[in-house]
Design goal:
The chain is an alpha/beta fold and about 475 residues long. It folds into 3 domains: about 60 residues, Winged helix-like DNA-binding domain superfamily/Winged helix DNA-binding domain (Arc Repressor Mutant, subunit A, Orthogonal Bundle), CATH 1.10.10.10; about 120 residues, Alpha-Beta Complex (Aspartate Aminotransferase, domain 1); about 240 residues, Type I PLP-dependent aspartate aminotransferase-like (Major domain) (Aspartate Aminotransferase, domain 2), CATH 3.40.640.10. Helices cover about 40% and strands about 15% of the residues. The longest helix is centred in the C-terminal third of the chain and has 27 residues.
């Protein structure tokens, strides 16, 4: 058993408690909640959990054993017997066209061209497993106390030091809060700012999960176009000068990969200062700039304390960590700590301490250097293969993706859905736009998940599918 049995006992019924326990476990087995081989609690542990006599649970287990539903062994404990499953309990599929359907399609994998996840080939699995195993032992042997809701101090110190070196931000560990990935950081920020009912500038195109997050927080996203200099600040000033928030990806715009120009950075910060608005800086892929040095973080030039910087380790280490951080202006530190303590605690200490050690011993920076070299080689190989396989295909580099725009009206979503059975998962460009009517069509081909040995075959298959969809 990986979680306690959720049995409901009604002491007002005439049915004996042992029979109620027996019926509850039987229903769990037949519905598929308890699968063949699943381990049950000992009758002593279940008696404590349910608040009944041990003999009551033992009698229920005896009945289940007589019915050949469970089998007891000193070596393996009490388990569900191997038997045909009468029914299977499955989560219902998300509604067609819903956000969750899009979410599942965009996060499917592992697959070639998938965006948002790092390369498996460069991941230091053995090293990180050793460090995490040590961190788990430390956590298990530590006193049973509630951890710091802001995050472990060791990790916050390492993040502050890293931001000073790599992102040009001067900050103290007290300004850093550890979160459950980027989504956890965004949720924490929106709770603290309390901007319900206000407008929020949002890049067009921009990350659809962030846009939906703003809507769920009861803000009104205002699409602001992106061009070769990043978000068009003057457009935002003309159309929504009263917005209370702007969400930007200034380092490498998601998904187009452009860097926010200095003049627009200063204009954006001037607007935020004069209007007392806030700017959320999503530091998307800034550590993984493949050409030249990464642009300084927007927070590094913020002198009015209006920028809230969010980063994560999902793209650089692994999304399975669900580990991110928020860097907040000094004036908001106490408020953020309160909300984190009551509403948004960070992940457990073990994963934080392991990540802190990974950074402190220099492994993180070495990992980034190796990863960038590998990604640059994969990008070049992918571009060369696309030029070789397709006559006149127009592609461009967009951060850690290759962007292929469609100009003939074919549906990028249709293409993507036909690629999935072949182990390919490019992202459709159109879902990054807020309005389907004005969305541009195209494919984003993730570089990180396209090893060089698979490039030729994957490109050929992809172009074949595009041609088939186009010729219908």
């Amino acid at each position: 058993m990986t979680k306690p049995l959720e049995l409901q006992l009604d002491r007002t019924k005439k049915t004996p408690l042992a029979d109620q326990i027996c019926m509850g476990i039987t229903a769990a087995i037949e519905s598929g909640v308890l699968t063949s081989g699943a381990r049950l609690p000992s009758w002593v542990d279940l008696a404590v959990q349910l608040g009944v006599a041990r003999g009551t649970v033992r009698a229920a287990y005896d009945k289940l054993s007589a019915a050949q539903l469970i089998v007891a062994s000193r070596a393996t404990g009490t388990r569900v017997t191997e038997r045909p499953r009468l029914s299977s309990r499955r989560d219902p599929a998300p509604e067609a066209g819903s956000f969750m359907e899009m979410y599942q399609e965009m996060t499917t994998g592992p697959a070639i061209f998938q965006m948002g996840v790092p390369a498996k080939e460069t991941f230091p699995a053995k090293l990180l497993a050793r460090i995490r195993a040590h961190a788990i032992r430390v956590e298990a042997s530590a006193p049973a106390l509630y951890p710091d809701p802001r995050g472990e101090l060791e990790l916050r110190r390492e993040i502050a030091a890293y931001l000073a070196i790599a992102r040009g931000i001067e900050c103290s560990p007290s300004q850093v809060l550890v979160t459950g990935g980027f989504g956890g950081g965004l949720g924490l920020v929106l709770r603290v700012l309390g901007l319900e009912g206000r407008k929020a500038w949002f890049e067009e195109p921009g990350f659809p999960f962030t846009r939906r997050g703003l809507e769920l927080a009861q803000l009104s996203p205002v699409p602001v176009p992106v061009d070769s200099e990043g978000i068009d600040v003057d457009y935002g000033l003309r159309n929504a000068p009263d917005a209370g928030l702007a969400v930007v990806t200034p380092g490498q715009q998601a998904p187009l990969g452009t860097t926010l120009s200095l003049s627009r950075r200063l204009r954006l910060l001037e607007w935020a200062s004069l209007e007392e608005a806030w700017v959320i800086e999503d530091d998307y892929l800034s550590e993984l700039q493949l050409t030249g040095r990464a642009a300084p973080a927007l927070a590094s030039v913020d002198r009015a304390g209006r920028v809230i910087h969010i980063g994560s380790f999902s793209k650089t280490i692994s999304p399975t960590l669900r580990l991110g951080f928020v860097l907040v202006p000094q004036a908001l530190v106490s408020r953020f700590a309160e909300v984190a303590a009551c509403l948004a605690p960070p992940p457990g200490p073990a994963v934080q301490l392991a990540t802190a050690e990974f950074i402190a011993e220099g492994h993180y920076l070495r990992h980034l250097r190796r990863t960038k070299r590998a990604y640059a080689a994969q990008r070049d190989a992918l571009l060369q293969q696309l030029e070789k396989s397709a006559n006149g295909i127009e592609v461009s580099t967009a951060g850690l993706a290759i962007l292929h725009r469609f100009t003939d009206g074919i549906s990028d979503i249709s293409v993507v859905r036909e690629t999935l059975p072949f182990g390919l998962a490019p992202a459709p460009l159109s879902v990054w736009y807020s309005s389907p009517g004005s969305a541009q069509q195209g494919l984003l081909l993730g570089i990180a998940t396209c090893p060089q040995q698979h490039v030729a075959r994957s490109c050929d298959r992809l172009l074949e599918i595009i041609y088939r969809v186009r010729s219908r």
